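In response to the reviewer comment on reproducibility (Comment 2.3), we provide here a single inverse folding case reported in full, input and output, so that an independent group could reproduce the run without further information from us. The structure tokens appear first.
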């Protein structure tokens, strides 16, 4: 398959606002791909690289060769191999070697292919080919029910791999994707409720538990083997021996748990979120695990023994959780439909230093990888997980540091991000130094004192309210926004949506 075919498909999808048209164009392209090209095509058309980060920044994409004329000759597999070579280039002379590889690649690209490659490498391929649309396209190309493809993708955590199986082996290929200990699945996410009254109205009688301001973990046990995964499915087992230990001693053969890891003070109150994340990101153990130990707390059980629990209602999963784990590593919770009891539980959680509570429907299954209606979070203050779109160079003592952040919410309709405002508040000197280095790695272009970046970095923003605004394209703006902390454990696809921001405004009106 020629890269030009994917580039033209991307253009057509971006030009259409109709979901069915997008699905049809994507499905047609996937049906033309050879077996070895399917997963690559799905990744590219989703705006992703199979290799992940390959070390190519904005500066490396300047002064590239001019496009070649027709006909197009670049093969998808050749491009994939070029990206793999770019990722492998390290050490002395790597900049020159990477430049040579890019010149060779772009020297063979037509104008359409060039623009596609630039958008792909810059993280700016915005065509509305989100995972839901792409899953439907895979199903159409494979002649399979869309629900089956979505479920397989949910369990695999990787749509390109599922697409490869669906288009080459049909139903039998999809049947291979099931919840299996030691193979992580995407975590279920929560929606937001504006208080326990609203949450109970939506959930009915519910399990209400502390909302811990920690790092999400998924813990697997099979025999004597214990694995710890992050919310992004990275294996961090070697970094957190203090979490492995209590799981390894449980009298079970197989277990999959969902929970949080959090750093606590000796009195049990949570330490600042950044302390947890700093310890969570430490790649060495020993002194770090002793000086800043992480405490695990679990709130769901997805698998136990020979039983898959992911489709069972929450009340059954919670019963298994309580049966298999000692209470000191289970998140405290109550079950109630009474607003007064729920409010008292929330007030107690806040008094203990926690973020708020989670209100979970007792009838809801575990919706891996989705922001399910069965889970509702209630916090004391407004917070949103937003994406950094750009940053401005600071002044005064912040000179030389990227300071004022341009914040964006996710827009599922376009596949892009919509700017909501800016903030330079809430940043420590340490954070300023870190974000300057990190954002320069994500740089795509500059406009005067503004550095535009790939929309990959998620930051948790606290704010006092939302107001209507004609200044920003989404029609809303945040009031008194300040940085609470960076969420490196979250991807941009998990950022809050523009609809969530508008809902805050609607509740205030």
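Designed residues, in position order:
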């Amino acid at each position: 398959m020629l890269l030009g075919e994917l580039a033209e498909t991307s253009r057509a999808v971006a030009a259409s606002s109709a979901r069915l048209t997008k699905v049809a164009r994507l499905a047609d392209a996937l049906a033309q791909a050879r077996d070895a090209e399917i997963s690559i095509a799905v990744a590219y058309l989703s705006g992703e690289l199979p290799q992940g980060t390959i070390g190519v920044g904005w500066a490396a994409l300047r002064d590239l060769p001019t496009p070649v004329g027709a006909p197009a000759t670049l093969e998808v597999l050749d491009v994939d191999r070029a990206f793999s070579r770019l990722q492998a280039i390290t050490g002395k002379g790597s900049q020159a070697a990477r430049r040579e590889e890019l010149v060779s690649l772009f020297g063979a690209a037509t104008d359409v292919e060039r623009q596609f490659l630039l958008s792909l490498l810059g993280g700016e391929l915005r065509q509305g080919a989100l995972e839901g649309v792409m899953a439907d396209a895979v199903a159409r190309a494979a002649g399979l029910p869309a629900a089956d493809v979505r479920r397989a993708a949910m369990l695999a955590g990787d749509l390109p791999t599922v697409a490869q199986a669906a288009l080459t082996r049909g139903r039998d290929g999809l049947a291979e994707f099931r919840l299996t200990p030691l193979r992580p699945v995407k975590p279920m996410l929560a929606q937001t409720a504006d208080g326990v009254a609203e949450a109970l109205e939506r959930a009915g009688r519910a399990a209400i538990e502390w909302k811990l301001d920690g790092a999400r973990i998924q813990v697997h046990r099979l025999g004597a083997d214990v694995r710890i995964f992050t919310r992004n499915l990275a294996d961090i087992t070697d970094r957190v021996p203090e979490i492995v230990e209590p799981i390894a001693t449980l009298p079970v053969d197989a277990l999959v748990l969902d929970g949080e890891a959090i750093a606590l003070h000796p009195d049990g109150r949570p330490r600042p979120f950044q302390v947890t994340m700093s310890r969570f990101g430490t790649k060495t153990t020993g002194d770090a695990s002793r000086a800043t130990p992480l405490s695990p707390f679990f709130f769901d059980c997805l698998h136990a023994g020979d039983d898959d629990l992911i489709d069972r209602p929450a009340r059954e999963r919670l019963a298994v959780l309580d049966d298999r784990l000692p209470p000191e590593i289970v998140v405290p919770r109550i079950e109630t439909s009474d607003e007064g009891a729920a409010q008292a539980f929330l007030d107690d959680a806040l008094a203990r230093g926690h973020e708020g509570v989670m209100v979970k429907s007792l009838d809801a299954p575990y919706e891996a990888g989705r922001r399910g209606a069965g889970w509702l979070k209630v916090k004391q203050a407004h917070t949103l997980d937003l994406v950094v779109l750009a940053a401005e160079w600071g002044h005064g003592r912040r000179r030389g540091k990227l300071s004022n952040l341009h914040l964006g919410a996710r827009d599922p309709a376009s596949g892009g991000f919509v700017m909501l405002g800016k903030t330079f508040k809430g940043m420590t000197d340490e954070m300023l130094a870190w974000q300057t280095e990190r954002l320069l790695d994500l740089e795509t272009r500059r406009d005067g004192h503004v550095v535009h970046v790939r929309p990959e970095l998620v930051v948790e923003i606290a704010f006092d309210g939302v107001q209507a605004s004609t200044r920003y394209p989404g029609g809303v703006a945040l009031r008194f926004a300040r940085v609470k902390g960076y969420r490196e454990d979250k991807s941009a696809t998990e950022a809050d949506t523009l609809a969530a921001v508008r809902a805050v405004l609607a509740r205030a009106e």
